[in-house]
Amino acid sequence: MNAAKRGRSSNALPTLKWKKVVNTTGPTPRPRHGHRAVSIKDLMIVFGGGNEGIVDELHVYNTGCFWLFLWKTS
């Protein structure tokens, strides 16, 4: 029986799970909320947010080599 006959969409999204990142190279960002993030190929880019006030930090994380970089903003 296919998914459509079971009452579900045939284009259902897969279930994804968070995985803790360990052994990174570079500065670790502080916990935050209110940030913006985007993933492009092997890069995850996180901008702004904060915990005790908003910051203008730009973090770039390479998921292929576990490299984390803090880009200087002005």
Automatic annotation (TrEMBL):
Record GO biological process: chromatin remodeling
Protein name: Host cell factor C1
One GO MF term: transcription coactivator activity
Gene Ontology CC terms: histone methyltransferase complex
Origin organism lineage: Eukaryota, Metazoa, Ecdysozoa, Nematoda, Chromadorea
Coiled coil: none
